[in-house]
């Protein structure tokens, strides 16, 4: 049975959280959810990483390349006001507010594994909404086959964008059926709070069966298209990073094995875990790739 947030949260944090609610300390991301703890059949029952781990070990190159750079620098990003431009092959293009895309009463908790292509992993209790519902609201037109995403470009607040580390803004893409899959969410929170900036505030993609780089942060643009978009990492190193980027222990990165992973927080003696096909979500997503050669379409 899927666990509730209160079951999986270390007692200390849970009590802190209760104190936080009692103090009415903030406009919470999900007051309704926090009280009902609506569990999800899509959640793993594995123990989530701590908030400390999830918010201090990040990849967010807009703030630097070290794992601790985002925690130190992303606080400077102004995420309010924020809007997401939805366009391309949709019936209702326009500028959507975050609260409009992910209203408090629609938020769900999804406890997902996150497997970075660098071979480390975490378990993160996201709060968000299925991307499918957002796309349905925008009205996907019949000819659309892919969804392209873009991160904010604001070098004044994202110091990494002043350097040619990547081809800014960061871009990602999904095939339409991947985007519509019920596991695919837009997250606006984690651990029952609004999303910390270093995790991609105010709204980011989470696609748990793909390498972490597909889960693009701080999204400002979503475009429906009939052409396969080129994502940032794919454009940088096409031999190393493909469009699909499904977690696959049988297809090694040219420079390292993908057979195992290091769970953050497992400690020095935690050992490595076997990486699972589709990051363990194969029962739910393998059908999307029937007939494809995943060594070729990596
Ligand atoms: N815009 C943007 N999105 C991004 C990245 C980035 O550098 N910039 N890094 C990606 C990578 S490589 C990973 S593993 C995840 C990490 O998410 P987390 O820091 O919330 O765990 O974010 C992904 N989304
Ligand atoms: Mo990653």
From TrEMBL:
Cleaved signal peptide residues: 1-34
Q: Does the keyword Amino-acid biosynthesis apply?
A: no
* Chemical reaction(s) catalysed: L-methionyl-[protein] + a quinone + H2O = L-methionyl-(S)-S-oxide-[protein] + a quinol; L-methionyl-[protein] + a quinone + H2O = L-methionyl-(R)-S-oxide-[protein] + a quinol
Q: Which domain of life is it from?
A: Bacteria
Q: What class of enzyme is it?
A: oxidoreductase
Q: How is the cofactor bound?
A: Binds 1 Mo-molybdopterin (Mo-MPT) cofactor per subunit.
Indicate the quaternary assembly: Heterodimer of a catalytic subunit (MsrP) and a heme-binding subunit (MsrQ).
Instruction: Give the protein's recorded name.
Output: Protein-methionine-sulfoxide reductase catalytic subunit MsrP
Instruction: Give the source species.
Output: Paracoccus angustae
């Amino acid at each position: 049975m899927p666990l509730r947030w209160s079951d999986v949260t270390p007692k200390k944090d849970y009590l802190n959280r209760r104190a936080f609610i009692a103090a009415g300390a903030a406009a919470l991301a999900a007051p309704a959810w926090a009280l009902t703890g609506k569990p999800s059949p899509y959640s793993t029952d594995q123990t989530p990483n701590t908030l400390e781990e999830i918010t201090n070990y990040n990849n967010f190159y807009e703030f630097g390349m070290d794992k601790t750079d985002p925690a130190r620098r992303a606080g400077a990003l102004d995420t309010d006001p924020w809007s997401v431009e939805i366009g391309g092959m949709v019936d209702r293009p326009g500028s959507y507010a975050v609260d409009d895309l992910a209203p408090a009463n629609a938020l769900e908790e999804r406890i997902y594994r996150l497997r970075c292509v660098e071979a480390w992993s975490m378990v993160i209790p996201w709060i968000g909404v299925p991307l499918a519902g957002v796309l349905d609201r925008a009205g996907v037109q019949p000819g659309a086959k892919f969804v392209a995403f873009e991160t904010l470009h604001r070098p004044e607040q994202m110091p990494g964008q002043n350097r040619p580390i990547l081809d800014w803004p960061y871009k990602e893409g999904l095939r339409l059926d991947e985007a519509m899959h019920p596991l695919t969410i837009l997250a606006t929170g984690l651990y029952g709070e609004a999303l910390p900036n270093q995790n991609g505030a105010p709204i980011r993609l989470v696609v748990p069966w793909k390498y972490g780089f597909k889960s693009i942060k701080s999204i400002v643009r979503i475009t429906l298209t009939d052409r396969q978009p080129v994502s940032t990492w794919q454009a940088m190193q096409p031999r190393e990073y493909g469009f699909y980027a499904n977690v696959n222990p049988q297809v090694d990165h040219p420079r390292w094995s993908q057979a195992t992973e290091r769970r953050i927080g497992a400690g020095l003696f935690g050992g490595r875990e076997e990486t699972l096909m589709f990051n363990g979500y194969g029962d739910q997503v393998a059908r999307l790739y029937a007939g494809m050669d995943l060594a070729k379409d990596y």
